[in-house]
Design brief:
Blueprint lengths: L12 H6 L3 H6 L7 H30 L3 H52 L1 E5 L8 E5 L2
Length: about 140
């Protein structure tokens, strides 16, 4: 595709599936700090996974607890860690999926813009009064 070297098309969304933010880098003319999207998505998902692991460990401690205060404390800690982990994972998923969707839409716009430009140009024979040759015509 001829539009790909300048602005990426909808296939750039595949890049964002693997590395969030990379697809935005491909479809935008102005190159911004897209690594922040990568850091946000990976950071939220990674921290969410860590909190889920922590909540599983706290749950094991809760099951082994023997005093009522310890049981109540560990139960509250486990539930808080579990909710936090779920919220962080959901936030990471939202950032990641929003990036993929935005790149897909922007890539389709880029592809349509390229096709519109391509359709609006034509090459034809020049009129005899203009001399012999070819004329390139642009339609806007």
């Amino acid at each position: 595709h001829l539009y790909a070297p300048v602005f990426g098309g909808p296939e750039s969304a595949l890049s964002s599936i693997l590395v969030p933010g990379l697809g935005q880098y491909k479809v935008q003319k102005k190159k911004g700090p897209y690594f922040l999207i990568t850091a946000a998505a990976y950071g939220l998902v990674g921290t969410g996974i860590a909190k889920k692991i922590q909540s599983n460990n706290t749950y094991s401690d809760y099951l082994a607890a023997s005093t009522p205060n310890e049981i109540a404390s560990l139960k509250d800690a486990y539930q808080t860690q579990k909710r936090t982990g779920t919220a962080l994972l959901a936030g990471g998923a939202v950032v990641w999926l929003a990036d993929v969707a935005w790149v897909l839409l922007q890539g389709m716009r880029n592809k349509n813009a390229y096709q519109d430009i391509r359709k609006s140009t034509s090459l034809r024979w020049a009129r005899p009064e203009q001399g012999i040759g070819l004329a390139l015509q642009y339609q806007f």
